[in-house]
Amino acid sequence: MRSSQYLLSTVKETPADAEIISHQLMLRAGMIRRVASGMYTYLPTGVRVLRKVEQIVREEMTKAGAIEVLMPMVQPAELWQESGRWDKMDAELLRFKDRHNRDFALGPTHEEVITDLVRREVTSYKQLPLNLFQIQTKFRDERRPRFGVMRAREFLMKDAYSFHLSQECLQKTYDAMYQAYCNIFNRLGLNFRPVLADTGAIGGSMSHEFHVLAASGEDAIAFSDGSDYAANIEMAEAIAPTGERPAPSQQMAEVATPNVGTVADVAQLLNVDNSQIAKTLFVHAATADDAKNTSKTVQLIALVLRGDHELNEIKAEKLAQVKSPLEFASEQELRDLLNAGAGSVGPVNIQVPVIVDHSAAHLADFVVGANKDGYHLTGVNWDRDITKYQVADIRNIVAGDASPCGKGKLEIKRGIEVGHIFQLGETYSQALKAGVLNEAGKHQIMTMGCYGVGVSRIIAAAIEQNHDDYGIIWPDAIAPFQIALIPMNMHKSVRIEEATTALYNQLTAAGFEVFFDDRKERPGVMFADIELIGIPHSIVIGERNLDNQEVEYKNRRSGEKELLNIADIVSILQQRMQQK
Amino acid sequence: MRSSQYLLSTVKETPADAEIISHQLMLRAGMIRRVASGMYTYLPTGVRVLRKVEQIVREEMTKAGAIEVLMPMVQPAELWQESGRWDKMDAELLRFKDRHNRDFALGPTHEEVITDLVRREVTSYKQLPLNLFQIQTKFRDERRPRFGVMRAREFLMKDAYSFHLSQECLQKTYDAMYQAYCNIFNRLGLNFRPVLADTGAIGGSMSHEFHVLAASGEDAIAFSDGSDYAANIEMAEAIAPTGERPAPSQQMAEVATPNVGTVADVAQLLNVDNSQIAKTLFVHAATADDAKNTSKTVQLIALVLRGDHELNEIKAEKLAQVKSPLEFASEQELRDLLNAGAGSVGPVNIQVPVIVDHSAAHLADFVVGANKDGYHLTGVNWDRDITKYQVADIRNIVAGDASPCGKGKLEIKRGIEVGHIFQLGETYSQALKAGVLNEAGKHQIMTMGCYGVGVSRIIAAAIEQNHDDYGIIWPDAIAPFQIALIPMNMHKSVRIEEATTALYNQLTAAGFEVFFDDRKERPGVMFADIELIGIPHSIVIGERNLDNQEVEYKNRRSGEKELLNIADIVSILQQRMQQK
Fold first, then answer.
1. If you measure CA to CA, which chain A residue comes closest to B45?
2. For residue range B14-37, what is the model confidence (pLDDT) as tens digits?
3. Is the pLDDT at B203 greater than 70, yes or no?
4. Interchain CB distance below 8 Å, B96 and A99
5. What digits encode the pLDDT tens for the residues B515-557?
6. What's A477's DSSP letter?
7. CA-to-CA distance for A152 and A41, rounded, in angstroms?
8. Of A401, A433, A463, at which residue does a domain stop?
9. Confidence of residue A197 (pLDDT cuts 50, 70, 90)
């Protein structure tokens, strides 16, 4: 591609409204332009990267036995009503009416459509397992779209759905998808980790997220330094402390703690470590049947954590006694129950269930709120001062915690979620009565898996992980062009033009995607653009080097420069790209 | 691909709700399934064909210098308001509000979005010409979607938009697109014709449609049998008869024609040919300014055609005197003006403008309505009996008319429109003020072209053109699989299984897409499915032929069968597919 026949659209200034580096660089490198909030046009450089990511995903899915289909973006309400999600989903599901006043939605995902398809097309166990995927445009009407294509409203996704008659069969496809995802992210040239994940609102039992590691990632991931264990911090188990709990050595005593509310304040006032304080959070209890609960009294539950630990809301929500999604008690509810404010509440002598985190349950002689404004209790001990309580894992892990796998300690890194695999189970197949005749001739509901890759999101994640002060540093596999040719003052030198054109033809014929910068621009402008758009290999063609039949090669990632003989260029570059 | 690992989904019965053969066959061959009116899921066989068509279109567009972009499907109202189409377009433009109550539409086309992009990104004549294309999902809320993907609401389209500073430059890109479209349809293996077309509501000056020829096509196309001339029948010029008009030989006389209304009835009663009758149609006249026209009297215009000719409404609409879109006079309006019904009106002694088709203007001693119910006039002659009239081309051509190119006579064939190229001019660039600095440093509005290919529609058109009683007959280039392997009783014969597997591996390694029918089905079922889905080349592996190291080859299109030596298969098939 010659730049004179291309739409480069690079921008020097950092756009004011782009908060993260990938968004800034995608705008500056001429990859995307905003059409409306969360909606983008991909410019030529953006499309080139997008199509490469798409093709790698398609090839690896196909290799893993998945079959490509294509479902519509616009979906009829009936299917969403059948699954129950028409009413359950919030405004993220963009609903509208067609000209005949029928209800439709823009598809944010396709569980309903695929389950409907499969229940019609698949009638016998002989047709199973089946794993269908598509690469298709989705729409989620995010309340606050931002970060460019990282959280867009309209985006390109690969979604796959598998159908089975047994958990073993589902597990086999799940494992194959796990491996396919590893292959995809390896081929993309990204540093990634699969991590155990929460199955969340979509339901199901087993789930892994695939994260591209980047300091700017919005998710925290816990890694063992002694094994392959990795889990989303929401999921990572904080294991119970080992050894005996110390015996009580103090008497419980009430101390005045006027005007202090936070753990840190109390710790400072009483001259103890944060970890010696037990903080108590009150949340709403689950009710047997919310609809029938006509009493206006809200039942509360006390959650007790060490002062230096944070509540893990996902773990708390999973407790049977706790209302899900989590609701914290209001100041008024606390006052009605305990006659004290949030800064002075504690688990001693209260009439509601108490759930204690493993670490907090290991404390002796600790400090809690006295349920009396401006007072705390010191020297508190479990079993002696609080006799009725339950112990559970309800905190976020912290760096240095023992790994739940039993090997090593946990580290925390940041990641960007680019893939997610789920064992869905029968959530959708039950709702849509999707079953087949099994080997015994009986009708049996299928069990399902689903597997997503954020195709457009991968681009942003790749940039978050691969950039420097000058711009993007593409892995070879998804670079918009692999090689840039930068001729020096070509418009004044026939010799330079001829040498560059010859090299262009040679490299193109060898199958490389070459960007020939034939603009009448100063060398500095050309260098800056090539670095900004992140072409991995560039070749500068100048008069002096041509005298020796040489050109200057520069590697975008290492920054290394070297002189190469023109005759060797093709074979050297072929070698370097194969080594990746 | 082994059929046991595929979703074949063929259907024996012809679906009741599918009216045309391509829709029936796409359903029966397991290519598509209906999700809602005009919305389809592409099953694996459908996706394979769709992706091939898409890739051929992409490659030829790229070769022709167009650059790929990708615009969003959801478009903000503001751009459509700026072009004026937000209010102008009917319900085909599906409008809706997002969660923040902002107006959006599903994109049926992208003139607004691309023009907005280019006015921001392109500032100098140096960046022109520019031709940007995308292959993207469109939505048109058709009032009556039908014929499967032939007229769907959601469909895949390639649309391209070019930008220029001069008509010469536009013409050059237009010509390149014309050639690219010829290349596309040739590579697809389709019998097609580019035809001159009306520019219609989208505006602009020059336009060609690309039609796949098929007896079932909904458009009529006029071809010269003596040249390359082809035009949509809406556009084909009916040239004026040559030679002198015969001199009058009869006196004008009133004859009673009771209870006859149609041309054929009158001709029979008076014992003359249909072509000797001049029929008169009355339409509304264009008014200088409709908004200011407060008079309730509608002005009429008389259009006179030979009795054996049909009015071409598009030609009539283009006349300055005629209201566009065309409105025919009501029975009451005729009676108010002429005191006669539609079956008895004529151009003699009337007070409204008369526009006569060239052929009708060449008549002498002809018959017209007498403007008196139940009476006609015979022996009517131009200039003598009707003195004030204008001559124009306002009829549809008929087979046998002289070609307007001057060579040969016209034939009429049916076609399916699959591509359309337009010289848009400044319609959108003016509305959106899309200009650049020209060579003189002055701001100049760009001129535009636009170029569409109905990617998913091509599939239906290809089937309309290529099928027989047994199913689809794919051209090699877009067949879902190129070769089918049909083993006889494989599940009872290890030898057959081994031979078929070896052949499968060999053909796959040679780069062919092979469908290995490894189902436990009767041969008849397998043959029927392979013919239905239209795989061009099939190979039957049977015990007896294996004794001679042979297999049976069958060509889907010709139906010819022959025995081939297994050792030669790869080279023979390579040769046959290259010859295409």
1. A69
2. 888 899 999 999 999 999 999 999
3. no
4. no
5. 999 999 999 999 999 999 999 999 999 999 999 999 999 999 9
6. G
7. 12
8. A463
9. confident
Residue range of the domain that includes B67: 19-212+423-463
ipTM: 0.89
- According to the model, what pLDDT value does residue A291 have? 47
For chain B, the domain total comes to: 3
Q: How many CB atoms lie within 10 A of CB B193?
A: 19
The domain that contains B499 carries what CATH number?
3.40.50.800
A73/B40 touch (CB, cutoff 8 Å), yes or no? no
Q: Which of A11, A59, A67 to mutate to test the interface with B (most CBs of B within 10 A)?
A: A67
Tens-place pLDDT, residues A487-505: 999 999 999 999 999 999 9
Judgement on whether residues A428 and A489 belong to the same structural domain of the protein: no
Same domain, B42 and B141: yes
Residues of B in contact with A44 (CB under 8 A): 67-69, 132
Q: Which of A35-44, A205-214, B310-319 has the highest mean pLDDT?
A: A35-44
Residue A224 lies in a domain: no
Query: What does DSSP assign to residue A197?
Result: -
pLDDT at A480 over 80: yes
Of A43, A104, A139, the CB nearest to B69: A43
- The C-alpha angle B41, B46, B52, rounded to 5 degrees, equals 125
Query: What is the reported pLDDT for A182?
Result: 98
| Chain A 237-276, residues with CB within 8 Å of chain B CB atoms | none
Interface of A with B in 99-158 (CB under 8 A): 99, 102, 104, 106, 113, 116-117, 120-122, 127, 130, 132, 134, 137, 139, 141, 143, 153-154
Q: Is residue B407 part of a domain?
A: no
Judge: A75–B36 Cβ closer than 8 Å, yes or no. yes
> Which CATH number do you get for residue B295?
3.90.960.10
How sure is the predictor about B114, in pLDDT bands with cuts at 50, 70 and 90?
A: very high
Across the interface, of B33, B72, B121, the residue whose CB is closest to A7 is: B121
| Region for residue A401 given its phi and psi (left: phi exceeds 0; alpha: psi -120 to 50; beta: otherwise) | beta
Classify residue B518: in a domain, yes or no.
yes
Other residues' Cβ atoms within 10 Å of the Cβ of residue A273: 11
Write the residue in B98, B121, B132 that is nearest to A141 by C-beta: B98
Chain B residues in contact with A82 (beta carbon < 8 A): none
Residue A394 has what pLDDT?
A: 96
Residue of B nearest to A104 (CA): B36
Residues of chain B numbered 390-449 and touching chain A (CB < 8 Å):
none
Q: How far apart are CA B80 and CA B78, in angstroms?
A: 5
**Total residues found in chain A within this entry:** 580
Residues in B closer than 8 angstroms to A91, CB to CB, are 99
Reading the block at residue A356, the tokens are 């204690």
Domain CATH code at residue B194: 3.30.930.10
In order of B310, B349, B379, B387, B482, the CA distances from B382 in angstroms are: 20, 12, 10, 7, 65
- Three-class secondary structure of residue B222 per DSSP: strand
Look at residue B291 and tell me whether its pLDDT is greater than 50. no
Judge whether A524 and A532 are in contact, CB under 8 Å: no
Q: Is residue B496 part of a domain?
A: yes
Of A65, A71, A96, the CB nearest to B5: A65
Q: Are residues B428 and B370 in the same domain?
A: no
Domain end among A392, A414, A433? A392
Same-domain status, A28 and A132: yes
- The whole-angstrom separation of Cα A535 and Cα A540 is 13
> What is the per-residue pLDDT for B294?
54
B135-151 b/e with 16+ CB inside 10 Å = b?
bbbbbbbbeebebbbbb
> Do A95 and A51 fall into the same domain?
yes
Residue B69 has pLDDT above 80, yes or no: yes
For B181, phi and psi rounded to 5 degrees?
Answer: -65, -40
B362 and B259 in one domain? yes
Chain B's closest residue to A105, CA to CA, is B96
Asked whether residue A280 carries a pLDDT value surpassing 90, the answer given is: yes
Residue of B nearest to A62 (CA): B1
Which residues in chain A have Cβ-Cβ distances shorter than 8 Å to B42? 69-71
Minimum CA–CA partner of A93 in chain B: B99
B68 touches chain A (CB under 8 A): yes
- pLDDT category, A27, cuts 50, 70, 90? very high
